[in-house]
Here is the input.
Amino acid sequence: MQRIEREQARKYAFDWEDEPLLSVAPGETFEIETYDASTGYFTRAGEPALPARRPGFHRSPPLTNPIGGPVYVKGAEPGDLLIVELETITVEDFSWIAVGPRRGPLGESTRWPELSSDYTTRIFDHAPGPSGTTRDGTLRFNDRISWPITPFVGTLGVAPDREVTTSGDGQGVWGGNLDIRDAAPGNRILLPVFHPGALFYLGDVHASQGDTEFTGTAAETKATVRLRMRLKKNKRIPWMRIEKPDSIVAVYAARPLDYAVETATYHLMDWLITEYGFTPTDAYLLVSTCPDFRINVYQMCRLGKLDPVAGAELPRRYLP
Here is the structure.
């Protein structure tokens, strides 16, 4: 099986001029070993999140969220649709979260000074599950609280049309740092293609995350991601889409949040109208009346240039 090794997965931009690290056929399974968002800096709680100590953090923009790629998908051409099928994500034996002064919504808090005066790093141990791996393992938050590891890919996408965009704050129709918890095993990520071969990148795996990633970091971890690609020729979509076994999700990122929510909903309506035969009126009324229609706010953290990321979701049982 072809694989991008972890030491190769240290790109910090979606760049159409990068030489591909792999060339895969549609349907071929391959792996990408990823670094965590700090490129391996955080390993213990005694390492505070001091920006000056983090490799590449002094750069503008800082070198965060390393990604592996690009992967050249044989037969992919501009105007095609890339379908990313995530098979498994195996995280390493710990994850971390780091907060500190002038970072996140409480980085200047006077109500809780400990959040704005000191840098804090928390390490979470991962216990293997019944399979003997972390694929069904447990994250230990503290001595009292734990939960199942629910890994997903935080940063993924293809090379944008013309620009070069960083893996730290880049977001767009092509993907980017979106921190969507539904970019998870068993789901399919749909992306438009802008260059021959698609030029796909992936990294920034989280072992778990709450909605919005409020502090600006979640359970950041190293991982091995197993995946494969499919192609749909001559098919264009307005923005990223996600197909789950039981639902479909239209994604959009923008500021302010209400614009992201509205546009994600418009894109879901367009999906219903163009591919499932709904009339515009029925699609419009459905998203306002269906009790199972949901808006997911995946990412809404006060961090650099990142825009809020919303997903408009509808269960498949309402589709013809």
Observations:
- The chain is about 10% helix and 35% strand.
